[in-house]
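Budget justification note: compute hours in this period were largely spent on complex prediction jobs such as the one shown. Inputs:
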Amino acid sequence: MNYPLWDLAFSGSGLIVAIIATIHVFISHFAIGGGIFLWLAEWWSGKQPEGAEIRKWLHKYATFFLVYTTVFGAMTGVGIWFSIQLASAEGTSLLIHQFVFVWASEWVLFLAELTVLYLYYYGWKTNSPRMQLWLAGLYALISWGSLFAINGILTFMLTPGNWTLENPDIAAGFFNPGFWPSLFIRTLIMILLGGLGGLVIASRIPVEELKEKTVRFCIRFVIPAALLAPFFAVWYWSVLPDSAAKLIEGGAVGVGGGRMEAITTYFITAIVAGAMIVVASTVVYLRPKALTFMTAVAIFLIGMTGVTGAEFMREMARKPYVIHGVLYSNALWKHKAADADYMAKPYLEKSRWHPAEIPSSLERGEWLFRLQCISCHTRDGYRAIIPRTAAWNGDFGVKWFERMHEQGVMPPFEGSLDDRAALTEYLLSLHGKKENAVDILKKLEAGLEAEKIKMILQEAGRAPDALPPEIPADEAAADAAEDEKEALK
Amino acid sequence: MINASLLNDIFTAAAPMPGVDPLGYGIPPLLFQLLSYLTFSMHITAMNFTVGGAILFLWLHLRRNDATLPIRRYLGGGLPLGMSYVVTLGIPPLLFVQVLYGQQFYSSSILIGSFWILIIPLLITAYGLFYLHKLTRDSRRSGHGAIIFIGLVAMLLIGFFYVNNITLSMTPEKWLDMYAAKPDGLSLNLSEPTLFPRFLLFITPAIAVSGLGIILAGSFLSRWGREAEASLFRSFGVRAVPVGFVLQAVCALWIIAVLPENISAFVFAGNSATVLLVAGIILAALAAILALIAAGSKRVLPALLSLIMAFAAIFCHAALRDMVRLQYLAPVFDLSQVPVKTQWGMFGIFVATLLLGLALLIVLMLRVFPGMASAARK
Ligand code: HEM
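Corresponding output:
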C-alpha cells in the first residue's frame, strides 16, 4: 500500500481508465489497419485507369486518417498512461520498471510512425508515387510493430505466465501465453476497422463506377477479418487463467446479478456486432451503389461497439488483479495476502496515507474504505457500494469481509477485526444507519459466545433449539449463559 | 477475546513516502537521468516553438497588418505539427520520470489527480483547434483568433498543471495534509512560492525560441529566392528574441528570490549546479548574439547555430532542474536507495531500435525534403 488512492466521486478512477482505453483501442486499431489499407489502396490506385480520381478519394481518407488518429488516437494513448497512473500507481510502477525499454522502443516506433505519416501526407504533391507507396508501407509496418510491442505488455497483465516477482524474466513476461492469440486477433480487428473506415470515405465518392469499385475493395478487408476473428477469440480464451475464463462464462462464481450480466452482455455485444458487420458488408458488396454515408458510419459504429465490448470483457477478466496472480487492483500484493498474520494486523499501521490521528471508528472506517475499496467501487456512482450493502447489518458486515474474496472478483480483506467493524460502521452510515463499531463488536462477541455455548450444549447432548432468533444476540447470550449455569448445576 | 479498545488507538502513519519499486532501476540511474535530460530538453524546445508560435500568431493577428500574413500562415500552419512533437517528445521523459522518481511523481499526480487527468481533454482541445485552424483558414475568414487563443490557453493550463505536479513531487512534507483535506484530487500546489516564477521561467523563452524559428525560416526563404518574405521573417524574428530572453531573466531573478535558502545556497555553492547555471546563461547569450548575426545574413548556418545554442541552454536548465529536485528531496530520498537490477540486453534492444529508427527517418527526410524545397522555390 504505497500510494494514495484517487477518491473520485461518481465515476471512480476505474471507469475513467475504461473510457479512455476503449476510445484509444478503437482508434489505434483503426490507425494500424487504416495504414495497411492506405498502402494497399496506394498500390491498387496505381493500377486502375481512373487512378488519379481514386487518389483524390485517397487524399480525403488520408486527411481524415491523420486528424483522427493523431488528435484522438495518440492523445488518448497518452491518456491511458495518465489514467492508469492515477488508478493504480503501484501496478503502473511495476509495469514501467519491468518494461521500461520495451516502452522506450515502442516510443521510437511511434516517433517513426508519426514522422513517416507526415512525410507521406505533407509530401502528397511533391513525392513520387513510388515514394508514397514506400511511405505508406513503412507506416503500416512500423505501426504494426508498435502493436507488437504494446501487445506484450497488455497481455502480460492478464496472463503473466512464467514471470514471477522473484524471478522477473522479461522474455517470459513479454511472450506470455496470451501474446500470440492476442496479436493475431488484434491484427484482424485492425484490418477490419481499416476497411470500415474506407467504406465511410468511399460512400461519398460521386462517380458511380468508381464508388462501386472502391466499396468492393474495402469489403474485401472486412468480411474475411470478421469471419476469422471468432476462431482467434476461442484460442485466446483457451489461454486465459481459469478464474478469468470462469468469470466470463458466468458459472462457478456464486454472485448474483449485475456482474454476470454485465460480462455476458459485453461478450454478446462483441459477437452480435461481428455478425451484423458480416451481414451488412455482404449486402453492401452485392449492392455497392446503394451504400450511403450514414449507412457506412453506422457500420463503422457497430464495429466500434464490438471492439468496446471485447475490451470491457478483457478488463473484467482481469478482476480482481491489475497483474494477474501478482498484484490486486487495490495495490495488495498477492504474496502478502498469503501471509495470514500480516493480513490480520491493523490495516492503518501498514498504510501510509491516512492522517496521524483518526479520532473515531467511523472515520477509521472511511479511511479503510478509501484505501481498500475505492479502486473498484464508488459510494453512489459507478459500481456503487450503497445499493450493494443495502441489506447489511452490523455482524453480517463483519462476517462478510472474512469471505469477500471467495466471490472471485475482490481481493481478501486486509486488517484486524476492529478494522472490519469500523468499515462496517462506515458502510452502514452511508445508509443513515447508526451502528457503532464497538457495539457491533459486542454483539458479535455475544453471538460468538452463544455459538460456543450452543456447541457445548450440543456436545452435552442437549437440543440446540433453545435460542429463538428474534432475541438480540447479547440478550440471547445472557440467556444462554443462564441456561448453561442451570445445566451445570 | 475481542479488544474493542483498539478502536480508539492513534495510528502514527508510516512516512507517506512510498517504498521503492521491487524491480529497481534497469540501468544505472545516471544513464536514465541523461536520457531524461536529452528528451526533456527536446520536449521543452518543441513546447517553446508551439507556445511561442501561438503567442506570436495572436500578437500579429491582433495588429491586423496584412503585410505580416506570410508569418501568420507559417506560424499557424506549424501549430498542429508542433503540438504533435510536444506530446511525442514528452513521452520519454514521462517514462523516465516514472522510473527515476515514481515514488514522488505518482504520489503528487494522484494528489492533483482531478486536474491532472484534465490534461487529456485539454490536449485534444488544443490539438484539435490547431488543426481546425489549419484546415479551415482558407475557407472561413473569421474566428481564427479565438481558435488559436483557446488552443494557447489549453496548452498553458497543461504546462501549469505540470509545474504544480513537479513542484509538489519535490515537497513530500505537504502530502499527508493535502490528501486528508482533499482525497478527490482537487488540490493544486498553489501555496508553493516558486510555482508562478517557475512556470513563467519555462514559458517566457517560448517567445525567443519561436523567434529563432522564424529567423531560421527566413534564412530558408532566402535560399529559395523569396527575398521579400525572407527579410520580413528575419526582421520580425529578431525583435521577438530579446523580448523572450529578457522576460526569462526577470523570472530567473524572481525564482532565486523565493527559493528556500538551502536550495539557493546549493545552486550558488560553486558546484556542478553553479556550472550548469553559468553555462546556461552563456549559451543563451550566445544564442541571442547569433540571432542578431543571423538576422543580417542570408545564410542558414547562423540561424541554425543560434537554435543549437538555445537547445544547449535548455539542456543545462533541464540538468540543473534535476539537481535542484534531488536537493529538495535529499532529506527523504536519494537515487542510491533504489537497487539497480540491470537489463542491459533490453537496453541494447532499445538503443538499436533508436539508431535504426533515426537512420530510417534521416534517409527518408533526405529523399522527401528536396522535392518539397524545390516546390517552395520561386
Ligand atoms: C501541450 C502542452 C504542454 C506544455 C505547455 C508542457 C510544459 C511543460 C513544462 C513547463 C514542464 C516543466 C515542469 C516543471 O519542471 O515544473 C513540463 C515537464 C514535463 N512534461 Fe510537458 N508540457 C506539455 C505537454 C506534455 C505532454 C503531453 C507530455 C507527455 C506525453 C509531457 C511530458 C512532460 C514531462 C514528463 C515533464 C517532466 C519531466 C521531469 O520532471 O523529469 N508534457 N512540461
